[in-house]
């Protein structure tokens, strides 16, 4: 394997926004990192650069998805670039790079533009890149790229899909690509051959069509002659009709001028009548404007009163709303006052009930305590009896259990030893019988010597047969190849000679046809003298026509100027008349509008002066606004003060309630602690009395401060010593003795009790000899090792003394209970002192909070009173401001309206004055009408003269053009005939020369091919030689097969003999060693059996001497039942006392709390009463305001009705004036309609005149155009000038044209085209022969590729199967497996099936194994392929995920062996720590920035060396 993958560079691919490089070094390279950081993107980048074309297999929808798409902090990239560097690739590089040792394969993708490949900077096809990696047993989809899911895909793949693994191992993946290219070329060549045949058939069909086209040419000429005759007749008819149209236009023009004169008289009468009516309209308009002004003024007053009514109704509605709110607030205040009164009365009754219950509780509590004390004494006595009985029973049970365990152990040991001795005796007898003899070994040695001699002879025979077979096969192959080649050359030469002969015949026919056409073209040429004469005639006609056209152009310019001057004169006259009439009308209208605007301006000025006199001063309005704003500010301040006061009152109330609650809780807690402490003190006192406490000094239990959890252990160790005194004289006391050095305990984890608590010196010996065992440690095993005086104890009360005494855990004991009660009593007394110290401070805080609450209530009432006063003052200010604002707004609105109307009227007046001035100036600037009429008549006379001159010149030009056209047609026909003949002659002469040259070349080629065919040997001779060589090869193969069978038989005999001889020697040695060991073991077992018999007897005697366990257990059960009954009674009495104490405490707390609540509810009753009084005051104010505002809307409505009546009167006057004006305007409209009708008639007459002039001009233009384009045909006078005659001629022209068009295009070059088609057919035949030869070569190449692929595939299959079997056994630590070709006899089409049998299972296919077994089997197959055809690189993407640690270890060891054997470089993506430990180096893929991957590298070998160096 020469090529090496050394580096991978990634830039812009998926999550790799920045360029990164991954060095692919020898050995194992690991890629690690958390999920989702981009590890698999490295693998996909490698697959992409090696030619992967499916974006979905790279986890993308399209190629653009592989480009970095951007994050919230980074913009997207438009290009992705991956470069793979290879070294040592000189032998496998593609053609342009052959010999280059280093290749850089780069693939670059641009967004929206696809991707491309480059090798060493040069653009390369993707297929070349894929073939390069396929030749290296790599590639995007090769078995060396084991991506995520590839193992499962290999397991689930069909056998045909698994065949690709064998193809990669055989190195024929590239052959598949080349075969595919050859097949594509073959299909393309076959397609080209089919297209060439189709083209040949088409050309042959074309030759027949050319004859039909020659016949169509004759029909075409006949139809063209008929068309020319019909066109001449139509031209004569058009000229005659044009002359007649000019005469008709002159007659219609004179009639239109008479109608125009009559229409002008009628229009003048209508204008005079309209003027008379328009004079009466200004006075009517002025009257209407006056009425409208008065009506608008009263409308303004009505609108002002309507606004005032709306404000009054809004104020009344606001007062009504405030009244409703005050009523609601008053009702709520009264309800709160009543609720507070009810709660106060309920608290008084509750306090009386609590006080009665408290007086009865002391007697009940004393009775319950007396009963509890009696039960406690009885329970103490019973506990002592139960403890004594329990100790006796446990000692007996322990001894019995130990004795039985000893007996069972001894019995089992005795039975086991007896069974072992019997088995050993049987085995010794068998070994003695199986020992081989020396005679048997000597006999096998003689057999081995004979087998070796036979094997040597067979091997010599096989070597000779092998050499003979090889020579025979070689000679047979050469003979078959020679025969095949001979037949192929003979057939090819015959085929080529026939093809050349056919092409030569076709050329001879084509040459004869072309020569006939050349002679015909020469006969069609026109003489030079005739062509020169026609040219001179056409030149003279062109010169005459040019002179006439120059003169006609000058006449047309003169006529156009005269016509334009006439049109301009007519337009000026018409515009002057219309302008004069419109100027007079505009002047009269502007004067009337000026009079109306002046009257409206005067009326509005008078109304403005009157309203300004009634306006309200702004100072008075501003003063009221300031007062109202001050009142609003005062009300807002009062409201804010009240809100702050209410907030403070609520906070004070809550603080008071919280303080009272805390005080009550503290008192209740103090009562509970006192009750519990008192109960414990009495219980301890009663216990002391019962136990005869010492008269002087405190006991040890009262003096010790025992840590929590050690009470039971200390009570078990000291027992009655807890009731002894430390100082003073007493029956029980502790003496202070000198300290001694305690003996060590058997285990180091044991702690002396003296180190765990602070005890007096008198206890140093007792506590130093007592050791506390850790939790979970058993003291029974350590009891025998205790020194005199020592004991072991656990926290739950288990005891082991040095003298053999042991005590079970969790036994009831008064000493432990007393120690716990004393500890709890000390804790309770400390808590009591803290609680009593905190109660005075809580009481003081509660008193302070109550005072603050009362002060907040008083401030709240004052704030509410201030708010009510501010609200009353604000209401008065708003009422005054509303009245004055209403007056001010009404007058201001009227003034603004009049000001707008005054501005409008002034603007209208100014506009009317300007309009009058413009109309007068326009009327003064009008031109003289008489002068314009005289100029119009002169222009008309000049235009008529110019038109007559132009018409004469047009007739002359028509005649000259006709002569020129006839000369040109004659010359064009002659030149066209000559040119066509000359063109055909020039085209056919080179073709004739080419055909003759091709004919000579084909004749020479035919002679050469016939000579070559004659020189070839006969195929029969080579076929006979091939058959003889094949027969000889078959005989040699049969002899070789017999020699091989003999060698295999003799070799098998020799191996069997040697194996049997070695087995006998080994069996003799093994049997002797085993026999000696068994005899020694038999002696030891006999001694052990005797000792076991003695141990069993001793155990049985000890078990019989133990006491009866059942009697002791029954007595202990009776005592425990009586103890449980006493405890239940004692608990009931204790619960009763606690309930009475808790009830008394709760009742006292409730009694004290009810007093505070009673005071609070009394305060609430008073506050609610004050709030109800304030709400009543606000309600009275709201009612007064509502009564004050109620009459105002009624008064405003009365004023509105009066103004409405006046408004109706003014509206009626306005309607009368409007009616009169409308009637005058209607009369004017009727007159104007008549005037417009007259003007329309006048306009129609003028238009008719213009149309008549246009028709006359059009007829003249049409006639001139006909005369200019053509002259009337000489001697042709149409008899019928009607439209039907023209229609008949046009139909005839259309029919002839249609018939000529139906013929289609006529090819006058049909003969020349036939010759071209014949030549193309010959060329196609030649190309067809070449394509058939290419097809034969391609099919031979495909067959050769298939043969090579089959040979290489079958050669590598057996190797892979062997490697797979060995690797499977190694990966599974046993088992067996093999591969099989299934589905087809052709190896290139067959499938690959995997059969596996893990250790301990049956043989099965791969799909029936577990997930881990499937993964190991698939990896075994992949590595077997590597051993046959190692790839330069192998990528494993998390393939160790389904493997356990043991399999991962074997997997990593196999990777190391593969590196050492083949030099393959592995890229391993993993999460497994054991896999990471086997890597030579690690690349860590991280995503410190979200969405952007980075790569970090660690060389583990280098790191290990550095660590070793630093440690040394």
TrEMBL record:
Residues 573-587 have a biased composition (Basic and acidic residues). ATP binds at residues 34-41. It holds the Pfam family SMC_N. One of its GO terms (molecular function) is DNA binding. Residues 573-595, 933-982 are annotated as: Disordered. Required for chromosome condensation and partitioning. This is Chromosome partition protein Smc. The gene is smc.
